[in-house]
């Protein structure tokens, strides 16, 4: 079946450090891929998405590239801020409009 | 203007009680979802409705029953609450042709 696997957290970084959160997926067909962010006490918000192979999604300095050959969609940011502290979820949507979420990776950014 | 709203935001109740959580979206979306997020932050889909019709029903106890009175609302009723039902429940909606889901703020349910 379809699934999403994320690296386990928490990830703790100093401000201005480089961020990578790994995400790999298993899916039949041609899924769309997403990163959602959940700030403390809030619901999930879409951060970025990519709908086909080699697409790069980007938003607020974050980016992720849809890699079909490695079934990956790793999230990166060149310089994190304290305000980026949140839980990040990788997700896919299959051809039947069903969404699968990873288990979330908590990011802590220290000043 | 809240796009997807849920009530209540917090719900503390005793085991065995019956409770409902309401969800409303003012985005004109066709599809609505309920998700359960456990204490480890793992998010799992429970139900999905499209135009008031159930299209996804994951392996969820019969004690959970979604009800969609109209396209803008998807309520979740839970009978005979158990300790393991304690979680954060998120409602979400999506437009028919869009791939983007919009999430509500969540309802934090604590069963004592």
How does this model look, in words?
The complex is a heterodimer of chains A (111) and B (112). With 111 residues, chain A is mainly beta. In chain A, 0% of the residues lie in helices and 51% in strands. In chain B, β5 and β6 form a beta hairpin. Classes of the chains: A mainly beta (111), B mainly beta (112).
Features:
heterodimer, A: 111 residues, mainly beta, six-stranded mixed β-sheet, four-stranded antiparallel β-sheet, 12 strands, B: 112 residues, seven-stranded mixed β-sheet, 0% helix, 57% strand, globular
List the helices and strands and how they pair.
The complex is a heterodimer of chains A (111) and B (112).
Chain A lengths: L2 E4 L4 E4 L4 E3 L1 E4 L5 E7 L5 E7 L5 E4 L2 E4 L9 E3 L8 E8 L5 E3 L3 E6 L1
Parallel strand pairs in A: 2-12
Antiparallel strand pairs in A: 1-4, 3-9, 5-6, 5-10, 7-8, 8-9, 10-11, 10-12
Chain B lengths: L3 E4 L2 E4 L5 E7 L5 E7 L5 E8 L2 E5 L6 E7 L2 E6 L8 E8 L6 E3 L3 E5 L1
Summarize the structure.
The complex is a heterodimer of chains A (111) and B (112). Chain A has 111 residues and is mainly beta.
Number of strands of chain B: 11
Biggest interface, and residues per chain?
A-B, 22 and 23 residues
State the share of residues found in helices of chain A, binned by percent: under 10%
- Largest sheet features of chain B: 7 strands, mixed
Alpha-carbon distance between the two ends of chain B: 34 Å
Strand content of chain A: over 45%
User: Can you write the helix and strand succession of chain A as a string?
Assistant: EEEEEEEEEEEE
What portion of residues of chain B belong to β-strands? Answer: over 45%
CA radius of gyration of chain A is: 13 Å
The low-confidence runs of chain A, each spanning 5 or more residues with pLDDT under 50, are: none
Helix content of chain B: under 10%
> What radius of gyration of chain B results from the CA coordinates?
13 Å
